[in-house]
Amino acid sequence: MLIIDKMLASGIKFVLDKVAAAADAELNDDSRLREELLAAQMRLELGEITQEEFAGLEKDVLARLREIRERQRSGEGEPGELKVVGVEATANFEKE
Questions:
Q1: CA distance 38 to 71
Q2: Which of 10, 49, 64, 69 could covalently link to 53 via disulfide, CB atoms 3.0 to 4.6 Å apart?
Q3: What angle do CA 64, 29, 69 make, to 5 degrees?
Q4: Is 8 within 8 Å of 91 (Cβ atoms)?
Q5: Residues 6+ positions from 33 with CB-CB distance below 8 Å
Q6: Exposed, middle or buried, 40 (CB in 10 Å: 0-12/13-18/19+)?
Q7: For 77, what's the count of Cα atoms within 13 Å in the CB-facing half-sphere?
Q8: Do the beta carbons of residue 68 and residue 36 sit within 8 Å?
């Protein structure tokens, strides 16, 4: 039973590590933001949004892009910002 418990805990730790890595990658991925800006520009050209709505979207996306670039340059987040580094999981199972 102890082997199964260790395997279960190792499996959970593995999954949580993968989730943490994916979250960190998405936090620093600017390609999604570029696609969002391109989509907004296309909506503007099609007349689906106004120039003012586009300007607001563009301002938000460019601000987030700047944040990502600054984070990448500094290698760290801002003070007080949450950064996922790793995950540790423990499990205590009672014997029946």
A1: 23
A2: 49
A3: 50
A4: yes
A5: 61, 64, 65, 68
A6: buried
A7: 10
A8: no
Total-model pTM? 0.52
Q: With residue 30 as reference, give the H or E element that holds it.
A: none
Dihedral angle of Cα 29, 62, 39, 46, to the nearest 10 degrees: 180
Summarised one tens digit per residue, pLDDT across range 32-62 is 888 889 999 999 999 999 999 999 999 999 9
Q: How many other CB atoms are there within 10 angstroms of residue 61's CB atom? A: 19
Assigned token pair, 35: 């696609």
Report residue 87 as tokens. Answer: 């995950």
> To 5 degrees, how large is the angle CA 75–CA 11–CA 19?
35
Find all residues with CB under 8 Å of 20, minimum gap 6, and list them: 84, 85, 86, 87
What is the structure's pLDDT at 16?
Answer: 86
